[in-house]
Amino acid sequence: MSVTRLLTSAALALGLASAALAQDKTKVGFIYVGPIGDGGWTYEHDKGRLAVEEHFGDAVETVYQESVPEGADAERAITQMALQGADLIFTTSFGFMDPTLSVADKFPDVKFEHATGYKAAPNVSTYSARFYEGRAIQGHIAGKMTTSNIVGYIASYPIPEVIRGINAAYIHARKVNPEVEFKIIWAYTWFDPAKEADAATALIEQGADVILQHTDSTAPQAAAEKAEGVITFGQASDMAEYKPRPRVSSIIDNWAPYYIARTQAVMDGTWESQQIWHGIDEGMVEIGEITDAVPADVKAEALAMKEAIATGEYHVFTGPLKKQDGSDWLAEGETADDETLLGIDFYVEGLTAEIPQ
Amino acid sequence: MSLSSIDATLLLASLIVAATPILLAALGELVVERAGVLNLGVEGMMITGAICGFAIAVQTGSPLVGFVAAAAGGAALALLFALLTQVALANQVASGLALTLFGLGLSALLGQGYVGIKPPPTARLDLGPLSDLPFVGRVLFSHDPVVYVALALVGAVWAFLKYSRAGLILRAVGENHDAAHALGYKVVRVRILAILFGGACAGLGGAYISLVRVPQWTEGMTSGAGWIALALVVFASWKAGRVLLGAWLFGGVTVLQLNLQAAGAAIPVEYLSMSPYLITIVVLVIMSFDKSRAPGSLGRIFHASQ
Amino acid sequence: MPRLERRPQPSARWTWLAPPLAVLVTMVAGGALFAALGENPFEAIRTIFWDPLFGEFAFYYRPQLLVKAAPLILIAIGLSLGFRAGIWNIGAEGQYIIGAITGAGAGLAFYPMEGWFIFPIMIVAGALGGFVWGMIPAILRARFGTNEILVSLMLVYVAEQLLAKMALGLLRNPEGRGFPGSRNLQHYPSAHNAELVANTGIHWGVVAALIAVIFAYVLLTRHLLGYQIKLAGQAPRAARFAGVNPARLVLICLGLSGALAGLAGMFEVAGPAGQITIDFNVGYGFTAIIVAFLGRLHPVGILLAGLLMALTYIGGEAASSTMQLPMAAIQIFQGMLLFFLLAVDVLTNYRVRARKTEVAP
Questions:
Q1: CB C62 within 8 A of CB C52
Q2: Mean per-residue pLDDT of chain C
Q3: Residue of A nearest to B209 (CA)
Q4: pTM for the full predicted model
Q5: Does domain A132-252+289-342 have CATH number 3.40.50.2300?
Q6: CATH tag for C40-324 (out of 2.60.120, 2.60.40, 1.10.3470, 3.40.50)
Q7: A residues 24..53 contacting C (CB < 8 A)
Q8: Which of B214, B259, B266 sits opposite A356 (nearest CB)?
Q9: Which residue in A314, B46, B185, B211 could disulfide with B206, CB within 3.0 to 4.6 Å?
Q10: How many residue contacts between A and B have a Cβ separation below 8 Å?
Q11: Chain C contacts of B80, Cβ < 8 Å?
């Protein structure tokens, strides 16, 4: 086994050395799970890449590979980038976790950054965004603005990230509107415009006048636009083309500051492995413009909440909170720790649906 | 959980909309298969139609011109398939799969400048007092024109195959191409025309997704609708009327599934999603006892020299 | 207009000449496409066809070719037997998925126990899973005459739903923080389909693919069953007189191709892919159909076609990564290659003649 490892490293290091000599720019690679043209998740990561290029100009060279399937193909794509002399590689999907670690093991001198995962190594960092902070603000606006008291929620897969968002939105909607009810549809996809449009339509037909989405296409926005008096929020990207209605605000994944900072760290030789979870404060989660379709006082409250979250004054999950089954979760004034949040698999009290198993 | 929150009228209305793309594509494929050709490239032709229709509609500002372009785009891709299978006598299964690969790539390339753009709206057809009728008004008489085109096409295809001379020739070619050839019919010409028609229909179905149902352009947005259309043709046992029924069933399962979830019913989504396919298999088995079976020459290569 | 005339025998010369001709034509047409996109066509073609084999990083790409080609060849060999007999299994994708599920499931059932017997059990389970999934259309065809093309295709969708169900439910990694996907078999030594020799890309799936090629070759040239398969495809009526039991042939061909596809799925999930995820299948079952035809349903041809197909994948990815060509352009390029390969086949079986003035029959 050790002989195998040795041979692998030797062979790969040889290739790496010859590639690294060819250039003195810092080379930054990006592995995307979808096409750049998806208008959502991958699109925003690519905006981050372009920001890196703009910020450093000739000092960096960026490369990317789009539509990389998770699994065996991902490992090859990442290796390929490392072989071609990338100094820093961002792998931007949860499914790239194990492939990233496996390649990182063979290229100890290359730095890796894996988005949304939880496994790190000396040359692998993880980074993720506290999208739930934005969800809380959406929940507040939703609770204030719904007249039917029904909020529709298009969810993707029943994983902690999504469940966290539902909880955050619901807690803050109920806080301002005890009558509010959440209707949740699991689309079992991150990206399927036709299905997302159907899901939004189904929710609207069942009385929802606010649609929150945790899927990446703008199809729900378009569906809401066709209906009267329904509001939505942009997801992943601003979805500004649906301003000022139905899209009244948005959560934007802003990766640019992080990508620039990490590239800088590699250039300076100060890069170290870390596991970060950034929110509104660090600018990784951005709240898109709240349009005039939102009453001025609601908008002011939403902005105040954003400010309080950013300064750390307010934590989105602050007790007293109970779990859906009525058992206690957080006591008065207590805030949820990251470990619980990262693995959350329960709804808070008041949500009527069940998490599918 | 309160199933009462599901409004049957609205459910049926959205079911009709959800069924339209696969209905259009399946009708086209039905004619192709009736002519004895199996074109597995429906997905590729649909997505090509989706981008052609979208791009042209955006450029001209007219959804109508967009739909015409979508049909042309779908047919153009189908022409490739026709050249391969009818002129170069290549295997149909492999050619169809290659066509899907090609169409997905082509559409993504064509669509690069069209992400995040809103297309011109397709107006609902104003049917005056009919639209105001209770129940049927909302379910049947308040849609966009394409829905009615699709429904009319069901009738047209049915009548064409059953009553017209050309339809009879097409079926003869599909049942036994050697016999049809011996009778002096132009087997290859009939098949090429059928393939082009199939491509145009698939293109229309794709454009319905990008121009009406979603409406926007994103890569890979048909996400498997073409494959469902293929299943649908089989489910319908190559009969136009049953295609309509099947489209509502296949489209309906998705819409119903989403509605049940929204109403709070805890349903096993995966099992519900696989049900149309299982039903199709059962239908296939039942049909095996029936005389309404697959066209005799389906998928076989025809060469006139025999 | 020229006219096609069927050759009494497929032309031996064109059998060998046609594929290189198709590759050449694709290079010209693809080069034009890349040029139209503002890229250097020569560099693009070199990156796709030359670099993975002889370029700077060939030491990495050559093994990857085997990794990518192995499942394609394994599945295509199974399919080709049926295709020769006129039995159309186009649902290999589904059998591949089920084989991966049963194979991975069998391995994970033993977790965290270690033992030499676990991997063989997984192999059997994977083959059995694919076999059972292939037997559904087989039995329906043999018993009721139901069209196997369509049943096997329908079962792909059913398998995909089952895969999602498994990734989210039964096989979900209990330590995976709630994310969909099973445990990674690469981290479970007894179940890991590892490289047999370091840096060669050769894992058990590659070995199985080679065995399958040899097995199919011997079967088709030396064995009665191979003769029956060929006869059933070429002259079904004659086959019946010769005592071929069509139902039995259907069961054998679909069962065999299902088992091989299941094996491919199992080797993939236990090795290169590592885990059951919602998007585990990437279309090998469908691509293998193309591979089978490109290889003209001949075992050696399939071996070469599988490698060529793998080359376009790997070279295409390389071109996309180094030249920043959009993946869409690579897909179009692959589509072109397939079109041309399928189209030139006509030269093997037909002779092009200038049309003479025909007398109406």
A1: yes
A2: 88
A3: A194
A4: 0.87
A5: yes
A6: 1.10.3470
A7: 35
A8: B266
A9: B46
A10: 106
A11: 339
